[in-house]
Amino acid sequence: MVAQTNNSVNKSTDENTLKMSVRSVQKTYRLGRVRVPVLHGVDLDVKSGEWVTILGASGSGKSTLLHLMGGLDRPDKDSSNPASVKFEDRDLTKQSKRALDRYRADDIGFVFQFYHLLPELSVLQNVTVGSMIKHGRLGYGKHRAAAVERAESLLDRFGLSHRLKHRPAELSGGERQRVAIARALINEPSLLLADEPTGNLDLKTGESILEAMIEHRRSAGLTLVMVTHDERIAERADRVIRLVDGVVVEENGTIS
Ligand code: ADP
Ligand code: MG
Fold it and tell me: What DSSP line would sit under 73-89, residue for residue?
């Protein structure tokens, strides 16, 4: 059995509490007989309410690390030096698949570089689907009205209220990413993990997406971990770390 936690306590934005704590994380992919070692012992703390940006060369393992933080994958097992990926007081490496599904639905939002919207659903449905996943098909009925209201409010804030009934294919890249961010925020997560959210967009569009995220982060007290290639975005974060040779290097050059 996985211990139940109290969500009202988890929403804390106290600067001194840790939202996420990653220790000794190693990750090796296996392609048939070929081993592809990516992370070699990553340690990283993210404080509640903090905005941490992750820089690193292409292929350095940024997405891999973000996926591990988002419970989308698990670190390698090493009994002599066990890895941990803690969200608040819960170690994700010890959680069941079902508990990780809950974690993703209840506690975090995840934004992918290539949006991952469902093409057959409208913009509004693409956002409310997050609430449907959280409550389940049967339970969703009770929450539907509130979810639609919140989705409309988020989409309005991101300048998309005239697009509610459109399909993703009818939107620009920037508009699609704003829908994806609204979807990530529908269940009021306390942590947003964003993987190069502006990486696929032109400069001006990227800037407007960033502003929308910053504004939302401020008003919701969100903790933000963002992977980016863009040094100018990185400059605006509270803290910047780099992935180099599979470990975390803080911007002042020290290996944490
Ligand atoms: P980044 O996001 O920094 O560009 P990734 O985390 O996507 O890097 O990938 C790191 C390395 O791991 C790359 O060499 C990539 O090819 C490899 N890799 C990523 N995902 C897989 C996978 N599912 N199977 C095999 N190799 C992978
Ligand atoms: Mg990547």
Answer: S-PPP-TTS--EEEETT
